[in-house]
Design goal:
By secondary structure, the chain is mainly beta. The protein contains 3 helices and 18 strands. It has an 18-stranded antiparallel β-barrel. The longest helix is centred in the N-terminal third of the chain and has 9 residues. The protein is globular and about 50 Å long. The N terminus is likely disordered. This is DUF4595 domain-containing protein.
């Protein structure tokens, strides 16, 4: 269980090309991405991401006929994601609504017919000049408000939770996120430090999903200092990130390091990506995982 829990924090980054990528040019359409995650050299997760007209349409798991299905609105932004666990068995459905700038203003999770313990919830977003307000409300009545403070470039630099001593600080350099840290009042807790390659970050799957505001939308939808969605919002492609855990309740020395290797084809397209991750406790390896991601073009 410990290995699985730690692994789920990490390997989320998938890369690809997109015709909305600023100065980059799409030379051929992406057909699919195949992802294999290995835990201690044993295949743990197999996924295939399928694309049509430069949009992610579904994710298939193992060799099954079922998977996650993506639907888009008239502006080409994802409007609904249905997560299936088997034929006729839906885990949950998530719907998205945007403002006229393509920024998420609401998303809802609706439980399916598999896990009766899942609760329906709704997030709503309000955009101000110096911050973004995210209001959460669950079916049970629980509510929470989070503030995301932004800099002059509208990068999120701080996250605070109402009535909580915890906050999160995000540091940037040359358009790249260099550190994400958790604080309990003024005491620094777990932090993640990032290093980057010389490759420009023009190959993210969320560009196929969230449109021109994919960085902001990705950040707001899946935000946590240890969540590797953060590795995909910078100017350059990530080369490495190191998580340092600081927990006064658990004095064990824990480290988590993830490294990225990129291989390009003769058309300068992403051909393969390898993600190597090692997590240790007091010098003993808890997790040794490898993710291999391959790209197929038309």
């Amino acid at each position: 269980m410990k290995k699985i829990a730690i692994l789920l924090i990490g390997l989320c980054m998938i890369s690809c090309s997109n015709e909305e990528l600023g100065n980059s040019e799409i030379k051929s359409k992406l057909i699919s991405i195949e992802e294999n995650q290995y835990l201690d050299n044993e295949l743990w997760i197999h996924k295939v991401y399928n694309f049509d007209d430069n949009k992610l349409i579904n994710i298939k798991y193992e060799n099954s006929d079922f998977g996650d299905e993506y639907t888009y609105n008239e502006k080409g932004l994802v409007s609904k994601v249905v997560e299936n666990v088997d034929i006729g068995k839906v885990l949950k459905t998530t719907t998205y609504t945007y403002d006229d700038k393509g920024r998420i203003i609401e998303y809802n999770q609706i439980p399916g017919n598999v896990d009766l313990n899942l609760s329906a919830f709704k997030y709503t977003f309000t955009y101000l000049s110096d911050r973004i307000l995210r209001a959460f409300k669950s079916q049970s009545g629980y509510s929470e408000t989070i503030e995301f403070f932004v800099d002059a470039n509208y990068n999120i630099i701080k996250k605070t939770i109402a009535n909580s001593d915890y906050s999160y600080i995000f540091t940037y350099e040359n358009g790249n996120l260099t550190e994400a840290s958790e604080f309990n009042k003024n005491s620094k807790g777990t932090s993640v430090n990032y290093k980057y390659s010389n490759l420009k970050n023009e190959l993210q799957i969320n560009q196929f999903i969230f449109g021109k505001e994919w960085k902001l939308n990705s950040f707001l939808c899946r935000l946590h200092p240890g969540n590797s969605i953060l590795t995909g919002i910078s100017e350059n492609l990530i080369s490495e990130y190191l998580t340092t855990f600081r927990n006064p309740i658990n004095p064990d020395k824990q480290t988590d390091i993830t490294k990225f290797i990129y291989n390009m084809n003769d058309k300068n397209q992403m051909e393969k990506q390898t993600v190597l991750r090692t997590a240790t406790t007091n010098g003993i390896v808890d997790v040794n995982s490898r993710t291999e991601i391959s790209y197929k073009y038309e």
